[in-house]
């Protein structure tokens, strides 16, 4: 059994809705302020259009990835979709979100720029809409969080294998450590221990019983490790609010750290299907 525990207090993707889509749409319609007709028609389209991906799960969009028309990020009944009317809409159990770009173009796509902006571009190549916040050049991640909101984190501050990137600054926002566990993500303030792991397709990241942090590919075995075997007992992995990963023993002694820190804020560690584990942050924009 896998667990991600709070240390204190707090997807271009392949994703389709579950077989319970019809009942899910009914539930979401009753809990959202977006028009019911818009919600219903969009869910019918989502049934027919999975989201392409080359780098990640269906809950995360990385710089360089593209969501095409009617493609979406989805997680736990929440959907973030670029509709065929060129409107970007977040369907969740709250007030949702939309870019208000209905009818502004055709064959629209959604990407994350190298400065951390969501970008809607029409089929003719012109820009329809961008999210307001920008950061330093680098690789960013738009994450559909388990609380139903979308946040942009970045740029990347650490990765396996190493990436060349800087770090951006932002104000400290809502604590994420109390968010429910997600299979491929670890948020600031959360820890990974007791046989738990992060996983995406063939790749897993876990702390072993002998205190070694290992990144594995199913068909290969260990492709990266912290080289800390036997250096501690009852160790766990922690992501702090400055983007640093650390393997810590039960005496709270740091056995290994990524050594990468940035501005204080919200960060996320993502295990991606392309064979990378990357820390992005801090958060620079959110639908919340």
From TrEMBL:
Domain Bulb-type lectin positions: 52-165, 183-288
SMART domains, A to Z: B_lectin (SM00108)
Key words of the record: Lectin
Bias kind Polar residues: ranges: 10-24
N-terminal signal peptide: none
GO molecular function: carbohydrate binding
Top-rank taxon: Eukaryota
Any single GO BP term: response to other organism
InterPro entries found in the cross-reference section: Bulb-type_lectin_dom, Bulb-type_lectin_dom_sf
Annotated region (Disordered), positions in chain: 1-24
Entry keyword Glycosyltransferase: no
The protein, known as: Mannose-specific lectin 3
Protein source organism: Apostasia shenzhenica
């Amino acid at each position: 059994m896998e667990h991600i525990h709070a240390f204190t207090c707090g997807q271009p993707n392949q994703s389709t809705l579950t077989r319970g889509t019809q009942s899910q749409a009914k539930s979401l319609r009753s809990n959202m302020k977006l028009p019911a007709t818009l919600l219903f028609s969009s869910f019918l389209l989502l049934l027919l259009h999975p989201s392409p991906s080359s780098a990640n799960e269906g809950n995360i969009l990385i710089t360089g990835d593209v969501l095409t028309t009617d493609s979406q990020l989805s997680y736990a009944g929440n959907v973030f979709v670029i509709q065929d009317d060129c409107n970007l809409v977040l369907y969740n159990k709250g007030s949702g979100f939309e870019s208000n770009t209905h009818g502004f173009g055709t064959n629209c796509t959604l990407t994350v720029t190298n400065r951390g902006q969501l970008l809607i571009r029409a089929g003719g190549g012109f820009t329809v809409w961008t999210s307001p916040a920008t950061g330093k050049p680098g690789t960013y991640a738009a994450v559909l969080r388990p609380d139903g909101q979308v946040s942009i984190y970045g740029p990347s501050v650490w990765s396996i294998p190493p990436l060349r990137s800087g770090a951006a600054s932002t104000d400290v926002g809502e604590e994420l450590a109390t968010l429910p566990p997600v299979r491929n993500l670890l948020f600031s303030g959360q820890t990974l221990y007791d046989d738990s792991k992060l996983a995406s397709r063939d790749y897993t990241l876990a702390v072993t019983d002998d205190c070694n942090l290992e990144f594995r590919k199913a068909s290969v075995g260990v492709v990266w490790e912290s080289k800390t075997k036997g250096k501690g007992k009852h160790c766990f992995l922690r992501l702090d609010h400055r983007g640093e990963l650390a393997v810590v023993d039960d005496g709270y002694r740091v056995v290994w750290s990524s050594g990468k820190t940035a501005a204080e804020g919200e960060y996320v560690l993502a295990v991606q299907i392309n064979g990378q584990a990357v820390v992005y942050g801090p958060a620079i924009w959110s639908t919340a």
